[in-house]
Amino acid sequence: xxxxxxxxxxxxxxxxxxxxxxxxxxxxxxxxxxxxxxxxxxxxxxxxxxxxxxxxxxxxxxxxxxxxxxxxxxxxxxxxxxxxxx
Length: 86
Known about the structure:
The chain is mainly α. It has helices spanning 19-32, 45-52, 56-68; strands at 72-75, 79-82.
């Protein structure tokens, strides 16, 4: 992982909204603030799973949501990267 990002310090995930959407929103906020840099790599699935206290499938759904929003590209075998200009 090329990023030096750390877990966010936001409140725990709420139970009244899908966890993957909350995680996607939090990561989008961090992407837009430039925390991962332009074309920077997001933390890995297992790191994010630990950060947010959820299973890896939830993280995969969140990553797919970010991809759908046009914020990241997934390079199979290499990781998830911020889309230039995101």
